[in-house]
Design brief:
- Helix content is about 25%, strand content about 40%.
- The chain is of the alpha+beta class and about 90 residues long.
- The protein has a single domain, classed as Alpha-Beta Plaits (2-Layer Sandwich), CATH 3.30.70.100.
- A five-stranded mixed beta sheet has the order 4-1-3-2-5.
- Helix 1 runs antiparallel to helix 2.
- The two termini are about 20 Å apart.
């Protein structure tokens, strides 16, 4: 299990991104958090195994159909043992 921090920039707020990210996280067995950031970006902390994290990150590169992802930054983080995936 590992933890990654994902910063997503573009037209990603007010597009259903956080809710659909939560749905995708549950489908992929990912735990963590998603929240809006100042300036219009999103921040996600995601924990899971390598294969499921790759599926989730791949989805984040596109997002829901209403969003327009322009840039994504993925960095390794410290494992926190999240118990669910929550919208903050």
């Amino acid at each position: 299990m590992k933890n990654v921090h994902i910063q997503i920039e573009g037209k990603v707020q007010h597009k259903g991104f956080r809710f659909t990210a939560m749905q995708m996280a549950y489908q992929c067995g990912i735990r963590g958090i998603v929240r809006n950031q100042k300036g219009g970006s999103l921040y996600i902390e995601a924990e899971g195994d390598d294969e499921n994290l790759e599926k989730f990150i791949s989805w984040c590169r596109k997002g829901p159909v209403w969003a327009k992802v322009e840039k994504i930054i993925v960095e390794d983080g410290e494992f926190k043992n999240y118990q669910s995936f929550d919208i903050l």
